């Protein structure tokens, strides 16, 4: 289950959720829910995890932590979808309650962060280093590619090499497609060829799990065994296809463990969406 609030701590000109992240409380019509209500909603809809997303959960840190505590009592996992732009002290407190995090590494250029995002690159890199090296939180990285803004192959290679050198080759990296929105309306949608190019750079740099996203492209959005290269999890947008993991989360061909956390069988929800309202 996914939820968010209003507001943001960055000023990204390309924000894909600007109607929520840039709104004011008086302009927002939404359901209000206590942490216990959210945990019960997960149980009622058979959700095994809850994602703090749409806007950055860092700005509603206290509420997110309370939700995570309520969900943990029900064995529901917490996933933070964040830009990682946070100071060291609250970083420790916030992420110790999260089971997984998807960090938006918006570019690998300080000028891009300052002029396009209204922030700075180094704090985000510090967050990634902290999460991967000092916590048990499962970490994935997403890079939204904007034509003419952050799609330079040299910059993409520098980013991939940094990830490989700083962490390990199994950290998943998602290259996702931009669509014109908010203040950047003069750039086209990201071509699939650009996403595939970025993915190939990541693989060439030694990363084992690089993906394309926001596009229906099964071959580059699916997971393959890092040892025998068998297709393990087939994905097309939000739809799962073939699933070739055993009950231990290992390749059923060569028995190599797949990095991550998996249940014994895949989910069957697919691309459906089910809005939830609280009264």
Walk me through what this model shows:
- The protein is α/β, with parallel strands linked by helices.
- It is 31% helix and 17% strand.
- The chain contains nine helices and ten strands.
- Strands 1-2-3-4-5-6-7 form a seven-stranded parallel sheet.
- Helix 2 (35-44) crosses helix 3 (61-72).
- The chain is globular, with a radius of gyration of 19 Å.
- 32% of the residues are buried.
- The mean pLDDT is 90.
Q: What are the main properties of this structure?
A:
279 residues, alpha/beta, 7-stranded parallel sheet, 3-stranded antiparallel sheet, 10 strands, 17% strand
Give me the secondary-structure topology.
Layout: E1 2-3, H1 18-21, H2 35-44, E2 49-52, H3 61-72, E3 77-82, H4 88-95, E4 100-104, H5 110-117, H6 122-134, E5 138-145, H7 153-166, E6 173-177, H8 192-204, E7 210-213, H9 218-221, E8 223-224, E9 231-236, E10 239-243
Parallel strand pairs: 1-2, 2-3, 3-4, 4-5, 5-6, 6-7
Antiparallel strand pairs: 8-9, 9-10
Helix pairs in contact: 2-3, 7-8
């Amino acid at each position: 289950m996914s939820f968010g609030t209003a507001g943001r701590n960055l000023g990204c000109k390309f924000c894909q959720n600007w109607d929520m992240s840039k709104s004011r409380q008086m302009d927002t019509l939404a359901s209000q829910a206590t942490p216990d209500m959210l945990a019960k909603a997960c149980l009622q809809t058979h959700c095994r995890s809850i994602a703090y997303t749409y806007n950055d959960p860092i700005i509603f840190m206290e509420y997110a932590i309370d939700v995570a505590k309520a969900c943990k009592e029900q064995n529901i996992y917490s996933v933070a979808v964040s830009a990682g732009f946070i100071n060291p002290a609250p970083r420790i407190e916030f992420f110790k309650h999260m089971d997984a995090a998807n960090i938006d590494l918006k570019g690998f250029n300080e000028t891009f962060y300052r002029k396009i995002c209204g922030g700075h690159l180094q704090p985000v890199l510090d967050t990634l280093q902290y999460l991967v090296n000092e916590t048990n939180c499962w970490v994935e990285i997403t890079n939204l590619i904007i034509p003419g803004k952050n799609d330079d192959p040299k910059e993409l290679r520098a980013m991939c090499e940094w990830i490989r050198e700083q962490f390990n080759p199994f950290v998943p990296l998602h290259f996702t497609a931009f669509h014109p929105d908010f203040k950047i309306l003069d750039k086209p949608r990201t071509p699939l060829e650009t996403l595939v190019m970025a993915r190939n750079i990541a693989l060439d740099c030694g990363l084992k799990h690089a993906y394309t996203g926001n596009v229906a492209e099964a071959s580059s959005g699916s997971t393959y065994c890092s040892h025998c290269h068998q297709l393990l999890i087939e994905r097309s947008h939000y739809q799962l296809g073939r699933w070739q993991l055993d009950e231990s989360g290992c390749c059923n061909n060569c028995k190599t463990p797949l990095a991550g956390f998996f249940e014994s069988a895949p989910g069957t929800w697919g691309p459906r969406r089910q809005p939830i309202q609280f009264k």
